[in-house]
Specification:
about 40% helix
């Protein structure tokens, strides 16, 4: 018998397409996909092989999260042009999702590295590390910028780059090396935001790749200048020239309750 003329039961047709027969019953009830015929003797739904491409189209659109009303409209007006438009829209949506997932993965890797650092670090150590170049969003601040205002600035920038949530990026502050060299350890001039999927473009800050001094400070911010003095002494004794900015960021905010336990990571580019 020719396959095109053979009729299948609802169970057979559902099994052929890897779905539950209740799905076919539901599609029939809402008028989205009806059986080829109804057995007059028992009232059972019967399907034919030639309906398979139609059902697979519906299943594809459902997998792409196309709404049922949209699928209804498309099935009533099926054409190559309409399918192309629909697929272009869904491909664009998937690209956005993939970008977000890559960003989330990079953020998770950053947090994981911070936790690894916490478990292996020596707070008293000052070390030399190599870093890759990265692109940062920055906002200007000064001594009069309140903490509340800083939060507002950070929130506004994350919204502008459509991050959705603050934890989707890394944050920190910057002090010019020139200020450190003259003993002005409170001269924070910028906040930075590292957005995982951000590419280099005009107006963004490029944190240079290369050699950095890295140190840590735990506890009161009033004692942070002492740590900077130790860093300057370390660099001077080794003939290292500091350049650009000092980049500070907290690395244990997610696992502490007291500000006294807060740990700041300090990284400063150096010229040997």
């Amino acid at each position: 018998m020719n396959k095109k003329s053979k009729l299948l039961t609802i169970g057979e047709f559902a099994a052929l397409h890897g779905i539950n027969k209740k799905t076919l019953m539901w599609y029939d009830e809402i008028g989205l996909f009806r059986p080829d015929s109804i057995n007059p003797e028992n009232g059972y739904r019967c399907y034919s092989y030639h309906q398979s491409p139609i059902l697979e189209t519906i299943l594809l659109l459902r997998e792409l999260d196309v709404s049922l009303p949209e699928i209804h409209d498309f099935m009533k007006n099926r054409s190559a042009e309409n399918m192309r438009s629909l697929l272009e829209e869904k491909i664009a949506d998937l690209d956005l999702q993939l970008t977000h997932l890559r960003a989330v993965r990079k953020t998770l890797c950053t947090h994981h590295q911070d936790m690894e650092t916490l478990l292996t670090m020596d707070l008293s150590e000052i070390s030399i590390v190599e870093k890759e170049e990265r692109c940062l969003v920055t906002v200007d601040i000064d001594r009069n910028t309140t903490f509340e205002k800083e939060v507002e600035l950070i929130t506004a920038e994350t919204a502008r780059y459509r991050l959705g949530r603050l934890h989707d990026a890394s944050y920190g502050s910057m002090i010019p090396v020139a200020s450190l060299l003259r003993g002005d350890f409170d001269d924070y001039t910028k906040l930075f935001i590292e957005i995982p999927f951000l590419k280099q473009k005009k107006g963004l800050h490029s944190q240079p790749g290369g050699t950095y001094i890295r140190a840590f400070h735990k506890g009161s911010f009033e004692k942070l200048p002492r740590r900077y003095q130790a860093i300057l002494e370390y660099a001077g004794s080794r003939g290292l020239t500091l350049s650009g900015y000092s980049y500070e960021k907290g690395i244990n905010e997610t696992v502490i309750d007291r500000i006294e336990d807060y740990i700041v990571q300090i990284e400063i580019p150096v010229i040997r």
